[in-house]
Amino acid sequence: MTKYFKDFKYFYSFLKWRLVITLLLSIVVGFLDGLGLAMFLPLLEMIGGERSVDPAELGNMAVLLDFFAFLHIEINLFNTLLIILFFFSMKGVFKFIETYQRVLTQQYYIRHIRLAGIDGLKNLSFLAFIQNDAGRIQNTLSGETERVVVAYRSYMQSLQTLTMILIYASLALFANPGFSILVIVLGVISNLFYRRLFTKTKQVSREITKMSNSYQGLLMQNVTFFKYLSATNTLNKITHRLEWNIDKVEGLNKKIGLYSSIIQAVREPVSILIIISLIFVQVYYLEENIGVIILSLLFFYRSLTYLMAVQNSWNIFLSVHGSLENIKAFLLELNEGKKSNGAVKIKYLNTKITLDYVSVNLGDKKVLNNVVLTLLKNHTYAFIGKSGAGKTTLINLIAGLIPPTKGSISIDEIPFETLDKSAYQDRIGYITQESVIFNDTLFNNVTLWAEKTTDNLARFEKVLSEASIIDFYDDLEDKEETMLGNGGINLSGGQRQRISIARELYKDIDILIMDEATSALDIETEKAIQANVQALKGKYTILIIAHRFSSIQAADFLVMLDNGQIRDVGTYQEVAARSEYFEDFKKEFI
Fold first, then answer.
1. What is the CATH number of the domain that holds 288?
2. How far is CA 119 from CA 107, 114, 338, 434, 536, in A?
3. Is residue 289 domain-shared with residue 378, that is, in the same domain?
4. Which of 83, 63, 85 lies closest to 74, judged by CA?
5. What's the per-residue H, E or C state across 159-173?
6. Domain CATH code at residue 406
7. Tell me: the pLDDT tens digits for 416-433?
């Protein structure tokens, strides 16, 4: 029984009192419906022109007559019809409230489950992100979220219909205890048949979630590496794997459909067989009053209707239960992987960034070892070294993407662990080899969806000039509203990089990181980009990882790394003259 309430507890953690209100409204609707049905019994007793009702013929339901007698309401044909109309009218009013409340509660849940995923991803540490499966993240925040909404809706339908079943079963027990107990016992026995199918459905649901995660991961890689796969005629191989995955999911969904079809097909015939058998026994052998039996049947008919509904909605819930388990685990992992944050906010980089004997371990591998380095404000540093020397890890460390395993980092002598990381990272611009271009307008790409005010437009054009892309902008027919296409497909490599530079300058930064930002460009375009960067020298603290000498010769300082350690720091001429490693490093450059 505890396992069923785990899901209730999970939904309650999001919905609180809204969940309770929804259930209470269901109880009120069921109770009013039951009272309305109960009033048909006095109506049946009046058939044949009788003007009054014999309480002895009503069994336990005679308590209704006592209640109306207390209110000084005479039970005749006219009053009975009015009372039935009143109860069902009130049921209609509360049914409207209950249905609309259910819609509001569902929308509230959908919003918060999506926000929980998005906020969790926003606060996820970079280290936790790279250890996660990209396909799972994509699938969980898109397809799995939709399936969890289905899980919530079907779970709530199951809970509400179960509430209605309990109400009608209680009313049936009150009207005719012996008959009702027999119905319940046989109903429970028949329900054992469905449990096996429910268990199978739940198992298949978990397999579907696993296969969907795999499918999303493959699909993302198919899109990301499309150029390579197309050029090497290997699209067919990944397509074959995707087709296999699709067939597998289709087969699993067919299984769930089969189980659901069996449940729906046999449910009603079994229920009717039970009812017919019990009526026969009650009337011909136990000589029970047919009127009270009919009232009990009315209650049980309602119960059976809801029983069919609850079995159907519960089977739907189990069919997506794997998604619910996945998103619960995923949100927990996001919370556990949340990046740590301090309270000290900085408005800008004032003097320097200092690393004192910093080491970084990724798994069992030591990537950086006892790094000591001071980066002065508004100086340009080029990080050089063979592949695997630790350049990118060092940059990730400075950017606050990963924490040091040992040692300390300080910003203007403020310990890094006490800093508000978001405020610090607001001061950082980051340009990578693969330019980040959103499938949106030029203005939104540069300003990151800033409001289009006069001041923002002026600032937008200013940074386009600083990034040497204003001529391109002037030639555009739609100006700032020009759509750039998916990944900047409508742009050249140089234009993409200039737009990336413009975006970072628009943000008002202190530190500009260029991680092999020009290595994918042709020589001519690279020289133009380097000229842009050269114009920014002295205005920003620029950190460069590059694979061409032309990218590092203009730097104020070279930081030479080898096997996770800093071998030398100095100007290009100083490092070239005194470092025994420099000639070896030159082999890494183009």
1. 1.20.1560.10
2. 18, 8, 10, 25, 34
3. no
4. 83
5. HHHHHHHHHHHHHHH
6. 3.40.50.300
7. 888 888 888 888 888 877
